[in-house]
Structures are given as structure tokens and as C-alpha cells.
């Protein structure tokens, strides 16, 4: 078997992402801006595929509806949700190095002085008392910049769902239990962003709030835990790299009945990629109190009125994408023969098929054009005619294209093409008329290794 190495250093992925057009540093020509990233042509395709995978998994169900709420919301929303008061991190400043650190994460921080040390660990360090810093970005709505015009960039998408609970339930004529799903940007003025797109100040969330009758909440919680881990597996993440972490009493939010994180083993260690929470009736109760509008549900069958409990599943799109890239990244072989390959699930790969003519000869190009047009009708496909076939394979390996189709002179004679599989590197001759079905079949049988 070819020796295979996994990703051990995030910098290798940052570099591949930049070179191949997945992810670029934001505003790079100006020197970049703290942990903001731009998705390039392949990154945006991968991200859309992840969002599509999530959206379908959620809204193909009869019991989940979609919404797309605005980023700017009434400021009272954030008082009701507890974010104005409680969405804070404790911060300390160092008067010597002028660094600012999270007081609860000092052991993971390093100061700007050389050689870099843990803040507070040397005699030189002069740390201030911890003070609370609110993570919400503030801005002003309209031309006046006074306290009456303050609005926040939402730090989570969930509140756009809670405030629309009644609208959605009535217009979609849903009965409890049912859920509302949303994908959208969220903003947090994180103190310690970093590790590529793992923690950024602007990111996308895919959240679903499932409204249930109190008393049935733990049963639904267990169902959603399973459904969500299955989704990560369906994206090709290996089971051995996924685990649940249960929040203990000190981690649990005061309103939460239960919380589990789905964790992935990144090169930086096991980290959360998704949170699954039993939020009780906290959010609807608070919005009812702060808005003065009833958020209760009336059950026609039993004639009961109650505030539903909420099971929340909340996954960062960028973080899920980072896990997908980390999991797929391999270096196989050694020396001259080594290849970097992204073993992405075909479902998520930006291109499913690449088509190459062996040479740039008119008769070959004519057949190649036909095959390429056929591929494009059925899959997201790309075309490459430059460099040796070996180089072209390597380029596709690095961007995760699962199947390469080469058109040569033998094929002109008998109507066949060569299909080369990214993962096994095996090649097979297939009739051009059977190619679509052949690739579809391969894609549906693909398994993570
Ligand atoms: P963390 O402990 O990593 O800060 P959290 O517990 O605050 O995360 P939640 O508020 O539960 O996260 O958000 C749900 C999901 O949103 C997380 O599991 C993660 O995937 C994503 N997420 C949260 N903060 C960020 C961020 N700053 N950058 C990228 N993704 C994020």
C-alpha cells in the first residue's frame, strides 16, 4: 500500500487553499485584515455544496421549514436573548507587551514578546484585572450616531428563527413538533480568532430550531444527536475523527437542559464543529416577555396551550468546511512520486469530473468536446489540455476531482474513454455512451477511507 500522511500542520492547508483558489486572505493586496478570509472559485463551490447538503438534509423533511431572516434586528432582540448582558469574554491586558488575552484561555495564549511566553508566566508580565468584553459588533442605523440608533450585527442566526416562530408556524400550517432552518452570516468580535477559518469574526452558521412539546424534548434531543452525526458522516468525514462531547454542569448555559458538541479531530486537536442543545422554553419565554406578544402554541387536538421547548442544532459552515478539507487532505507516496490529494466526497467536490484530450489534435478535440459537453450536462465538470496527463491528474488530485476522463486515439476508433479514479488511481476503459451512468454509479458507491 502507498504510504499516506494526513494533515498535521494547518499551514499546509492554508497554502494549498491559496494556491488552488479555495480560500484567500481577505484584502490581501492591502496586507490582509485580521482573520477574515475570502472564498475563491473552488472554495465557494465547496461551500455551496456543503450548504446544499445541509439545506437538503433539513428541508427535504416534511417537518422542517426554511427562513432567511435579516442580519440587523431590533436591538431589544439581543436584550431578550441575553446577548447584551451575557455575550462576553473576560479579558486581561498586559501593560508590558500591550497584548490583550482571554482570561479563561491564558494557558493557550502567547505574548508578543520574543521569546514568546504564556501571559502571566514571567516576572515582566503585568496583567490587569479581568474585565468583560461584549463580542457583538455594534453599528448605527440611519444618519444619527447616538445611542438610540445602535443596532448589532447578529452574533447567531437563531434569534431570527425564534422571532418568526409564530409567522412560520401559521403560514406553513405546521403542527408541533416541527423545526425552522436557516443559513446565514453571523459576526462575533472574537478576542482570539485564528487557526485559518476555524475561528473568525465573520462566519456562516447553519442552524435549526426544532419546537417540541415539553416532556418530549429529551427524546427529540437524542434523535437530533444521531441525525446530525450521520450528516457529518454523509459528507465523508471519517467516524474515527468524530466524537461527542457532553457539556458538564459548569459548561451548560443556565437555561440549557442538555448540550452535546460534535467534535472533530483537527490538526490542532479535538474541537467543536457543531452544538446540539436542549434550550428548554427559554428563548420563546424571553421574547414573549420582552415583546409583549404571545409566543405560545395552541394544540388543536388536545386543546392545550404551551410554550414549546427547543432542540437546537448549530453548525458553522466554515468550520464544517475546514473539517472536510482537513479530513480529505493526504500526501501519498514519497519523494518524486509523492502526490497531494484531497479525498473529498464526490458529493462535495467542486468538480466531479475533469476531461482531458491526450493531445491537442483536431480529431481528438472534436471527440473530447462532445464528451465534455455530455459531462457538463450531468455533472460540474472541468477541462484541461495543458501539460502531461500525469501533471493534469496531479492538478485535479489537489482540488479533489474524483474522476478524470482522458480521450485518446484508441477511443476515437472504438468510442471508449479512460476513466481514472482519484483515490485508487486505477484506470478503466469505458464506452463514452455509458460514461454518465458509470460515473453516477461510482459516485453513489464512494466511501471515505
Ligand atoms: P466556540 O466555543 O468554538 O467559540 P461556541 O460554543 O461559541 O463555539 P456556538 O455559539 O454554539 O459556538 O455556535 C455554533 C457553531 O458556530 C460552532 O459549533 C461553530 O461551528 C460555529 N462558530 C461559532 N463561533 C465561530 C467563529 N468565531 N468562527 C467560525 N465558526 C464559529
Short description:
This protein has 449 residues and is an alpha+beta fold.
Please indicate the percent range of residues in DSSP E strands (runs of 2 or more): 25-35%
What is the general shape? globular
The total of helices stands at: 13
* CATH-derived topology of the largest domain: BirA Bifunctional Protein, domain 2
How would a textbook summarize the main sheet? 7 strands, mixed
- Spatial strand arrangement across the major sheet: 4-10-11-17-14-13-12
Name the CATH superfamily assignment of the largest domain: Bira Bifunctional Protein, Domain 2
Tally of strands: 24
Structural class: alpha+beta
Helical proportion, percent range: 25-40%
User: What ions, cofactors and ligands are bound?
Assistant: adenosine-5'-triphosphate
Task: Tag the structure with descriptive keywords.
alpha+beta; Rossmann fold; 3 domains; 5-stranded mixed sheet; 13 helices; binds adenosine-5'-triphosphate
Secondary-structure map:
Layout: E1 4-6, H1 10-20, E2 23-25, E3 37-39, H2 41-59, E4 64-66, H3 75-80, H4 83-86, E5 88-93, E6 100-102, E7 131-134, E8 138-140, E9 150-152, H5 158-162, H6 165-171, E10 178-187, E11 202-212, H7 217-234, E12 242-246, E13 258-266, E14 269-278, H8 282-291, E15 297-299, E16 304-306, E17 309-316, H9 317-328, E18 329-332, E19 339-342, E20 353-357, H10 362-378, E21 381-383, H11 389-399, E22 403-407, H12 409-414, E23 416-421, E24 427-431, H13 435-444
Bound molecules: adenosine-5'-triphosphate.
Amino acid at each position: 500500500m502507498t504510504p499516506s500522511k494526513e494533515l498535521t500542520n494547518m499551514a499546509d492547508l492554508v497554502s494549498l487553499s491559496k494556491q488552488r483558489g479555495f480560500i484567500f486572505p481577505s484584502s490581501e493586496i492591502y496586507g490582509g485584515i485580521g482573520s477574515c478570509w475570502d472564498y475563491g472559485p473552488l472554495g465557494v463551490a465547496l461551500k455551496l455544496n456543503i450548504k446544499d447538503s445541509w439545506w437538503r438534509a433539513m428541508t427535504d423533511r416534511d417537518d422542517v421549514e426554511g427562513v432567511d431572516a435579516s442580519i440587523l434586528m431590533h436591538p431589544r432582540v439581543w436584550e431578550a436573548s441575553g446577548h447584551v448582558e451575557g455575550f462576553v469574554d473576560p479579558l486581561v491586558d498586559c501593560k508590558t507587551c500591550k497584548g490583550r488575552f482571554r482570561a479563561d484561555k491564558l494557558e493557550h495564549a502567547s505574548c508578543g514578546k520574543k521569546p514568546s511566553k504564556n501571559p502571566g508566566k514571567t516576572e515582566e508580565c503585568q496583567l490587569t484585572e479581568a474585565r468583560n468584553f461584549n463580542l457583538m459588533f455594534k453599528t448605527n442605523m440611519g444618519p444619527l450616531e447616538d445611542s438610540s440608533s445602535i443596532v448589532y450585527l447578529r452574533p447567531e442566526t437563531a434569534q431570527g428563527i425564534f422571532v418568526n416562530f409564530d409567522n412560520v408556524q401559521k403560514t406553513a400550517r405546521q403542527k408541533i413538533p416541527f423545526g425552522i432552518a436557516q443559513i446565514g452570516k453571523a459576526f462575533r468580535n472574537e478576542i482570539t480568532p485564528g487557526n485559518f477559518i476555524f475561528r473568525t469574526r465573520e462566519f456562516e452558521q447553519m442552524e435549526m430550531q426544532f419546537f417540541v412539546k415539553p416532556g418530549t424534548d429529551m427524546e427529540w434531543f437524542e434523535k437530533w444527536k444521531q441525525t446530525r452525526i450521520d450528516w457529518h458522516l454523509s459528507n465523508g468525514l471519517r467516524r474515527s475523527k468524530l466524537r461527542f462531547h457532553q457539556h458538564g454542569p459548569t459548561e451548560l448555559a443556565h437555561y440549557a437542559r442538555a448540550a452535546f458538541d460534535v467534535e472533530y479531530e483537527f490538526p490542532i486537536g479535538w474541537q467543536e464543529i457543531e452544538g446540539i442543545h436542549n434550550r428548554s422554553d427559554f428563548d420563546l419565554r424571553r421574547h414573549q416577555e420582552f415583546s409583549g406578544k404571545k409566543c405560545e402554541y395552541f394544540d388543536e387536538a388536545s386543546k392545550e396551550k404551551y410554550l414549546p421547548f427547543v432542540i437546537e442544532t448549530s453548525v458553522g459552515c466554515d468550520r464544517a468546511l475546514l473539517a472536510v478539507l482537513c479530513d480529505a487532505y493526504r500526501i501519498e507516496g514519497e519523494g518524486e512520486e509523492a502526490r497531494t490529494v484531497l479525498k473529498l466526497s464526490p458529493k462535495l467536490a467542486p468538480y466531479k469530473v475533469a476531461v482531458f484530450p491526450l493531445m491537442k489534435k483536431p480529431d481528438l478535440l472534436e471527440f473530447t468536446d462532445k464528451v465534455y459537453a455530455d459531462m457538463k450536462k450531468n455533472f460540474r465538470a472541468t477541462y484541461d489540455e495543458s501539460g502531461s496527463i500525469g501533471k493534469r491528474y496531479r492538478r485535479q488530485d489537489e482540488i479533489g476531482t474524483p474522476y478524470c476522463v482522458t480521450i485518446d486515439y484508441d477511443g476515437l476508433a472504438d468510442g471508449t474513454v479512460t476513466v481514472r479514479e482519484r483515490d485508487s488511481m486505477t484506470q478503466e476503459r469505458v464506452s463514452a455512451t455509458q460514461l454518465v451512468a458509470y460515473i453516477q454509479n461510482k459516485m453513489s458507491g464512494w466511501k471515505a477511507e
